[in-house]
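User: What would this chain look like folded?
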Amino acid sequence: MRKELLKQVYEFLDEHQENMISVLEEVVNLEGYAKEVDNVVKVAEKFKALFEAEGFQCELVDAPPNGPSLLGVLGEGRLGKPVLFSGHMDTVIKSGAYEPPVFRREGNRAYGPGVLDMKGGIVISLFVAKALNAAGYTDRPLKIAFSGDEEIGHYNSNGAEILKEAAVGSACAFNLETGLIDNSLCYARKGRLENYVTVTGVESHAGNDFLSGRNAIAEMAHKIIEIQDLTNLEKGTTVTCATIKGGTITNAIPKECVLEGECRFDTLAEMENYKKKIEKICDKTVIDGTSTQVKFGAGFAPYECTDQVKGFWEFVREVAEECGLTTVKGKALGGSSDAAYLQMAGVPVVCSFGIQGEWNHTMREYALLDSMSPRGKLIASVILSLDKYEAKTKGA
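Assistant: Here's the prediction, encoded as structure tokens.
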């Protein structure tokens, strides 16, 4: 690690703290709910302009029917293996939910849709690139791969494939998801799979023709308990029966009942096991004359704590200690992220490098502004130490 170069990078990040906040304000005020594709495009175009101004060659890659992904590279001809900054530009809050301007600052806290999850992380990566440029860094290409449909699990799109292809060949990846309040970095995340169970019965008058009816809600009640009991905490599998809809009026036997739910799991093998079990439950009929179908919706692959992931996390922790930065902890999380697809590309990736805060996916979402510069310093320190990491893993 070149101490003089690192010193310049640290000074740049400290001196540009307010600039980081100004850019964060700009992009948070551009609302980009994942299902409002036109708004996601506006956010993507804004980030594209910001990175191009720093010398990146960028392109927006369509991921229909959802928002596009932003890919870019700086220093494509450099000799070292590239470093990848990854994340997503879309958010979960519908436009108009916040009073304008949607970005609000209260002391060290900033509020607004995506301020934490995860526009703050993308802004950090932009300023890491700025700092490295200002210090004259030319060792490795810097790449970006930011999705426009992560919050809806790349449902019906090729968004995950775009990220995997962009990641191939990278020395490492920093996934800039929500930074955890306790300064942990994430080295494992559960996968997720939505399921939709529909029971069809026979509608009839509840008084005059009770015996002709086949109650879809009653049939579903039998299945809900069995489905919920597929939870296996020892394996890390959790099943949630989340919403139920059925019936029309109180004096009619309900013809239809729909259950929406999800499963979270640690491995792809466990996902396949869950699918087989819920299908078996739905094939079984308790009330004659009813039928059941199950369909699977949006899903996420698990980000597994492999030896490669744990090794890169350990290296990040060592670099933090060597540079006198805040001690880095490690944590496995239940929420999913695109780190899973970078891992599938064979790239060492650690997640949750973004701005720190709490309450993402809620109107209480906030980010700690003074975490931006320290997170940038940690990322830059690891980048400037990658020769050591590559030598270490080559000999492993």
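The first helix runs from residue 3 to 15. If you want, I can go into more detail on any region.
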